[in-house]
Design a protein that fits this description.
The protein is built from two helices and two strands. α1 crosses α2 (about 80-115). By secondary structure, it is mainly alpha-helical. A two-stranded antiparallel sheet has the order 1-2. It is flat and about 85 Å long. About 80% of the residues lie in helices and about 10% in strands.
């Protein structure tokens, strides 16, 4: 059985006789399995590299967050009144935002209920 390589697609083509179809199919399956395994290994390696990169970035991010948290804690210890005022302001802003979202959602639900009636 002869194998030819198509120069354009770089794929192997197998010349088969009609009497040798089973053999030709087996060769094709072997080639397909080899190609599949190559792709599988390539994706596995790339996934491992991505995992390592993500893990390293998460470690850096964790360190940055810990540094930021420490700075906030130090500032709060040095300036307790300012820290309390800032916290109260942030709490008020978040509360107002949440109240606005809830009211907007309620108005939308009320509109939908009126349309159904």
């Amino acid at each position: 059985m002869e194998k030819k390589v198509d120069k354009k697609s770089n794929k192997q083509e197998v010349d088969c006789c009609e009497d040798d179809i089973l053999c030709c199919a087996k060769e094709g399956m072997k080639d397909t399995k080899k190609s599949f395994n190559k792709l599988k290994n390539k994706f596995k390696n790339e996934a491992q590299e991505l995992k390592e990169t993500a893990t390293n970035e998460m470690k850096k991010l964790k360190k940055d967050v810990e540094k930021g948290a420490q700075k906030v804690e130090d500032y709060a210890k040095e300036n307790p009144k300012k820290a309390a005022a800032i916290s109260a302001g942030i709490g008020a802003a978040l509360g107002a935002s949440l109240a606005g979202l809830l009211l907007k959602k309620k108005k939308k639900v009320d509109k939908n209920n009126k349309k159904k009636k």
